[in-house]
Structures are given as C-alpha cells and as structure tokens.
Write a structure and sequence with these properties.
By secondary structure, the chain is an alpha+beta fold. About 25% of the residues lie in helices and about 25% in strands. The chain has one domain (about 10-350). α2 (about 25-35) crosses α6 (about 290-310).
Length: about 350
C-alpha cells in the first residue's frame, strides 16, 4: 500500500509516461542516463530502440482481455503478448512496495512500486524452459540458479549439509514481452516436500536495475537473518564490501512473503549503517502490468537527485534530471540539493564517460 502520501503506480503513471515519451526522443541520452545511473549497464542502441517502439505502440496491459492496439498479428511481440495473456491467472502475482530510507550522510526516503510473480522451478537446469506468466517470461538466464539441484548444491556449499528439497518456488520480476525486466530482489523458497505449504529455508538474489542477476544470499532456515557482503554495485553510491543484514518475514500463515528487509552498513558489526531497504509483498489479481523500463527510468532519475546531495560531479543535463526527479516523483523525505558524501559513497559515476 502507498504510504505517507505516496501515489500508487496507476496514479503516477501519466507523468512518467509523458517523461518517457520525451526521453525516448533521444536514444543516445537514454543510454547515457542508464549507463551513468547503474554501474555496469551497457544498453545497446537496438535494445533502447526496441523499448521505445514497444512503449509507443502499446495500449499497454490495461488488463486481462483488453486488446493491445497497434500490434500486428505478424509481429514477433504479438506472440509474447499472446503467451502472457494465456498465462493470466496461472500464477500468484504480487504488488511490491519498495522503500529506500537513507539516514547518512543525509536523510532521504522514498517508495517505489513494482511487481513480482511466483513460479515453481524444475528439478535440474537441463529441464529448465521459459515460464510464461501474466507479467512476462521468467527465464533461467535471468537467474544465478534455476533448479532444485542448483539450490541444494548451493546450500551444501554454504552450510556443509545437503538439505532435503522437493520443491523450489521463485518470486521474481518477469521479462515483460521477453524484452525488459526490473527485479532488484528475487526470493527462492525451498520446500522439504513438494506439497508443503511452509518453506524450510530461503535465498534472496540481488540484481541490477537492468534485470541482470548479481549475488545470492543464503539463509539456513526461514527464521534466520542473512549477514553477508553486498558483493556488487546497484547504484554508484554503493560499495562492494558493504555489509547486508537481511530478513524475510512471512505472513501469519507462513505461506506468503510479507516483507524482505535489508539494513546496509559499511562495517560487519553494523557500524556506519546508512540505509534501510524493504520490499513488502501483497498478493493481487492480474491487472495492469507496470512497464519495467518505467521503473528503470524512475530509479535512474532518483539516482541523479541523490547524486546532487552526495556532491557527485554532474553535467548540466544530469543536474536537470535530478530536478525532474524532485518535481515528478513523490518523496517522503527529499534529499538536499547539495552536500557531500562524507565517506558513505564512492560516487563511482564520476569515473564514467558523460
């Protein structure tokens, strides 16, 4: 649910849709925005062009049974749309509300909205096939593990014992139209027996804003906290050696995720803690699909607003994007326009080409 005046995705979609239309007029700028905001992102012009064409010609996912205008029957994307429509109602869909509450070196607090879907994984990776859902396709190449066999092996490597696992469910963001994906956090739930309702342990997988998997974090039981090195850079402000302290909280029946929380600090003992990230999950009926590139652009623009407060070196157009983020999106606490990182940020975007 939206909090503290934050608008839901359907309410804020108009402003963001207009912004996307404007940004997509300059494909080179879209590429630079994504590359500067997300470490390691190297979007290719043809990929950006495909995103633009999908955005422009779709009456995008207004709901089950509503036709998508302008998609010809011979178009390759019409097959993806057909497969998504056919999968409507076959999987559990979640509305995900992600909160980013920063306390150091300044206060900022905001909420984003995305979607996830639950799928069941095969016994081995060799048996893996694309899983079409109402949100899009869930694919093995978008994850660091995609089978019972791989999860059992990973657990044994982490904890020295092979667990009994007959089923693994994955809760993740799908690749919409087999094109775009936004899933910074995915969750694997392991079940001792195939018909169990309550999982025996969990693993969460971090990923980039561009949909690429990054690091697995293992919990030995459902009640365990995860304490691990971050291991990758989601934004230019992160450090690979930051410590993540995470916990998955299930609902009262222990059947569905309620919240995944992560506290990030610079020291293993929790010292120099600076941000709390949480993702809350709500089971919803199939409906409008949030276009992943909209999540990516919103996240990127918020990065530029925070970069202002970190004192990162920004060009005029990048400063302008930070200002757009301040005026277009809601903030529970808006970051200051100027400041210094005070050792809490690497400002790695300063090292990238503009």
């Amino acid at each position: 649910m939206p909090i503290d005046g934050e608008r839901g995705p359907s309410e804020s979609g108009g402003d963001l849709g207009d912004l996307l239309d404007e940004l997509f007029e300059d494909l080179d700028k879209v590429g630079r925005v994504l590359q500067r905001a997300f470490p390691g992102a190297r979007p290719q012009p043809d990929e950006i062009r495909a995103r633009r064409e999908e955005h422009r010609r779709a009456t995008l996912d207004l709901g089950p049974g509503v036709p998508r205008n302008g998609v010809d029957s011979g178009d390759s994307r019409s097959e993806a749309a057909r497969l998504q429509d056919q999968a409507c109602g076959k999987h559990t869909i979640y509305a995900v509300t992600a909160r980013h509450k920063r306390s150091k070196p300044f206060a900022s607090d905001w909420v984003g909205h995305t979607q996830s879907v639950r799928v069941t994984l095969p016994a081995t990776r060799a048996e893996a096939a694309p899983i079409w859902t109402h949100l899009g396709v869930v694919k093995a190449e978008d994850h660091l593990l995609f089978s019972i066999e791989e999860l059992v092996s990973g657990y044994a490597e982490a904890f020295g014992a092979r667990p009994k696992v007959e089923r693994v469910d994955l809760i993740t963001g799908a690749r919409h139209y087999d094109l775009d994906r936004f899933s910074p956090l995915s969750v694997f739930l392991a079940y001792e027996r195939a018909d169990d309702r309550q999982a025996s342990f969990y693993v969460y997988e971090s990923g980039s804003a561009m949909g690429n998997p990054a690091v697995l974090y293992w919990a030995p039981t459902m009640d365990a906290k995860i304490v691990a090195k971050g291991g990758f850079l989601f934004t230019p402000f992160a450090r690979v050696d930051n410590t993540y302290t995470g916990k998955l909280i299930m609902n009262r029946a222990k059947t569905e995720p309620s919240m995944l929380s992560i506290a990030i600090s610079q020291h293993p003992d929790g010292g120099r803690h600076y941000i709390d990230i949480s993702a809350s999950f709500e089971v919803v009926e199939p409906g409008k699909v949030i276009w992943p590139v909209a999540d990516q652009i919103q996240a990127a623009l918020r990065v530029f607003a925070i970069a202002q407060a970190m004192g990162c070196k920004l060009e005029v157009w990048e400063w302008g994007l930070g200002q757009i983020a301040r005026s277009t999106f809601d903030w529970i606490v808006e970051p200051p326009q100027r400041g210094r990182e005070q050792g809490y940020s690497t400002c790695s975007m300063d090292e990238l080409p503009r």
